[in-house]
């Protein structure tokens, strides 16, 4: 399964390789409330899944004389992509634990299965489909 950042090229760009390929989970970015980032490329043919990717504070490998601070806030679709992978892993693990004997028509661990999981979790905000495990959606 392949997850890919969509692109940070803003309104002038489009999804980049490999995000534009069929079967790839393409990841756009949002702020913590699900609003699409200004540097997202325009939404294309669905799905347009987005994940928190603004003001992420990763811990960089080590301090150096040039970079004494290890924690810097960063933004981009490259930071939203590991969030998407984490949400997928969390949900697949939950499904496998909660329903171990279930025979699935679409396997949750497949690209189609993850897309279906995200589709069930999404909240439409603007042109993007925000996926957040902290949002409770009544269906």
Summarize the structure.
This protein is 24% helix and 14% strand.
Question: How would you describe what is shown here?
Answer:
With 139 residues, this protein is α/β, with parallel strands linked by helices. It has one domain: Peptidase S8/S53 domain (Rossmann fold, 3-Layer(aba) Sandwich). It is 24% helix and 14% strand. The chain contains two helices and five strands; from the N terminus they run βββααββ. The protein has helices at 77-98, 111-121, and strands at residues 3-5, 25-30, 49-52, 123-125, 128-130. It has a five-stranded mixed beta sheet, covered by helices on one side. A hairpin with a 2-residue loop joins strand 4 (123-125) and strand 5 (128-130). It is globular and about 55 Å long. The two termini are 28 Å apart. The model has no long low-confidence stretch (mean pLDDT 86).
Looking at this protein, list some descriptive labels:
139 residues; alpha/beta; Rossmann fold; 5-stranded mixed sheet; 5 strands; 14% strand
């Amino acid at each position: 399964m392949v997850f890919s950042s969509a692109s940070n090229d803003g309104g002038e760009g489009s999804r980049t390789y490999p995000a534009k390929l069929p079967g790839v989970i393409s990841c756009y970015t949002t702020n913590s409330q699900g609003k699409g980032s200004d540097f997202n490329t325009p939404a294309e043919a669905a799905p347009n899944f987005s994940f928190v990717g603004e003001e992420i504070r990763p811990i960089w490998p080590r301090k150096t004389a040039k970079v004494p601070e290890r924690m810097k806030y960063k933004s981009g679709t490259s930071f939203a992509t590991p969030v998407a992978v984490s949400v997928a892993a969390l949900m697949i693990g939950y499904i496998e634990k909660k329903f171990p004997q279930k025979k699935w028509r679409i396997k949750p661990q497949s690209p189609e299965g993850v897309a279906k999981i995200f589709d069930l979790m999404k909240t439409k905000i603007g042109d993007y489909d925000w996926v957040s495990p902290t949002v409770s959606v009544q269906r």
